[in-house]
């Protein structure tokens, strides 16, 4: 059984070192000098990273991308510039942002999120010698574009198994940020995984908004309200695929002393969520940081990735975080999740995407 409802509001973003404020948004950059530029191994100015809705500080999707940028900066001695989105921006704003990064000599230039699809397509055609990456979209087909996508449904299946095993009421919840096909994959995998444990389990299902512009990925208050409603309905484990809005789900779950499952990053280990971590059962991981790092590495080595690059359980592109000692102590839950993971890798289980 499921129920769906929608809410809306604005974005919250946290930046680190302010570099500039333009019509395309605020950006930050590292202060290090690139050793590789002088050695001739790498000819670009550095890494250009443009954030999705919610921006840096979401403790989830965008922060995972930033972690990949930081790792690449440190390992390859390449400076990086990361740029924040603006409220209610258009495709034209994104095109301008990516164009500025490419014109400045950044390589690769990466759009974090499917919303950059039209912008990457247009700008990549104008800068054929620059490598572009886009996360969560595979619609852009070009020799200088890497489409970095994931089997989110596989990680979500493991989240569903964990939720069903941990639930004491056989009643769990799913909260999606925006009612779009990408987030449907999270829901489909979660529900299938839960029902593999208990075919009769009750699953509350809710999307915060119909479009990203309404704040579904960037409004913790909406996540909190949705979580409160699902808890009141009887759910005792919640899973949110909602970017920054997921912080509201986590805080409300902790306040009501029920389990919550994080998404994209290992949210148990995020310092900004430390006060809630005892109630974060685990997180459905999407190795966005690894995808960013791998693309930078390929450009640094002179062999840029292009085409579809897909992360799955079999290549550690997705997974389930087990950082919480309380989760590790639940051996029946851990065993069920590990078994499900192996069955997916072995091809014994095919996970739904709808």
**Overall pLDDT metric:** 89
Based on DSSP secondary structure assignment, what is the total number of beta strands?
14
Q: Structural class of the helix and strand makeup?
A: alpha/beta
Question: What percent of the residues sit in helical stretches (DSSP H or I)?
Answer: 25-40%
Describe the global form.
globular
Output the number of helix runs. 11
Element-level helix/strand string: EEHEHEHEHEEHEHEHEHEEHEEHH
C-alpha termini separation: 16 Å
Low-confidence stretches: 1-40
Strand order of the largest sheet: 1-2-4-3-5-6-7-13
How many strands, which pairing sense, and closed or not: the largest β-sheet?
8 strands, mixed
What is the CA-atom radius of gyration, in angstroms? 20 Å
Portion in beta strands: 15-25%
């Amino acid at each position: 059984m499921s129920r769906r409802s929608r809410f809306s509001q604005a974005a919250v973003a946290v930046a680190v070192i302010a570099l500039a404020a333009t019509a395309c948004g605020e950006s930050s950059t590292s202060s290090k000098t690139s050793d590789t530029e002088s050695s001739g191994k790498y000819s670009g100015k550095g890494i250009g990273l443009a954030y999705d809705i919610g921006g840096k500080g979401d403790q989830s999707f965008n922060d995972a991308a930033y972690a990949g940028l930081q790792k690449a900066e440190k390992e390859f001695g390449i400076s990086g510039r990361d740029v924040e989105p603006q409220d209610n921006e258009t495709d034209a704003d994104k095109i301008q942002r990516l164009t500025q990064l490419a014109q400045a000599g950044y390589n690769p230039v990466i759009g974090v999120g499917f919303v950059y699809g039209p912008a990457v397509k247009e700008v990549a055609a104008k800068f054929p010698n620059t490598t572009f990456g886009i996360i969560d979209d595979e619609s852009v087909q070009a020799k200088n574009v890497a489409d970095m996508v994931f089997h989110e449904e596989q990680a979500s299946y493991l989240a569903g198994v964990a939720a069903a095993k941990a639930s004491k009421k056989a009643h769990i919840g799913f909260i999606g940020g925006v009612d779009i096909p990408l987030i449907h994959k999270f829901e489909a995998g979660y529900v299938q995984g839960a029902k593999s444990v208990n075919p009769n389990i009750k699953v509350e299902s809710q999307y915060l908004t119909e479009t990203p512009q309404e704040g579904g990925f960037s409004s913790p208050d909406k996540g909190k309200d949705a979580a409160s409603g699902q808890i009141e309905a009887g759910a005792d484990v919640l899973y949110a695929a909602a970017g920054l809005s997921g912080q509201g789900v986590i805080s409300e779950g902790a306040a009501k002393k029920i389990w919550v499952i994080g998404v994209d990053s290992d949210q148990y280990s995020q310092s900004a969520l430390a006060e809630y971590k005892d109630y974060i059962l685990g997180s459905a991981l999407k190795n966005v940081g690894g995808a960013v790092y791998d693309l930078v590495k390929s450009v640094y080595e002179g062999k840029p990735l292009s085409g579809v690059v897909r992360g799955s359980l079999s290549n550690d592109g997705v997974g389930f975080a087990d950082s919480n000692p309380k989760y590790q102590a639940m051996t029946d839950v851990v065993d069920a999740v590990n078994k499900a993971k192996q069955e997916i890798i072995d091809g014994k289980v095919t996970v739904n995407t709808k």
